[in-house]
């Protein structure tokens, strides 16, 4: 199982609580600026992943981790 935070490019989603904006870059492989929907975290089977498109930056991962901990009341 892999824990996944889905992304969206819907502009309205950028204002929701527990979201984090991610700017597209060659490193992350996004085609558009996106919002990580931390409040919609899910667990998926590793079999569902076919190929890697990119890598999230350390700064974006840290911001998402903070939001995830807050959402789950872990700290």
Describe the structure.
This protein is of the alpha+beta class. It has one domain (2-71): SH3 type barrels (Roll). Helix content is 19%, strand content 21%. The protein has one helix at residues 58-71, and strands at residues 2-4, 7-8, 19-22, 34-37, 42-44. A three-stranded antiparallel sheet has the order 2-4-3, with helices on one face. A two-stranded antiparallel ribbon has the order 1-5. The chain is globular, with a radius of gyration of 12 Å. The two termini are 24 Å apart. The mean pLDDT is 95.
Q: TL;DR of this structure?
A:
The protein is α+β, with helices and mostly antiparallel strands.
Order of helices and strands: EEEEEH
User: Tally the helices: what do you get?
Assistant: 1
Major pleated sheet: 3 strands, antiparallel
Low-confidence stretches: none
- The termini sit apart by 24 Å
**Secondary structure: number of strands:** 5
Please state the structural category. alpha+beta
- Kindly state the percentage of residues in helix: 10-25%
Cα-based radius of gyration, to the nearest Å: 12 Å
User: Under the CATH scheme, which architecture would be assigned?
Assistant: Roll
User: How big a fraction of the residues is strand?
Assistant: 15-25%
How many structural domains does the protein architecture include?
A: 1
Q: What is the CATH C level class, in words?
A: Mainly Beta
Strand order of the main beta sheet, please?
2-4-3
Mean pLDDT: 95
CATH T-level topology:
SH3 type barrels
Shape descriptor reads globular
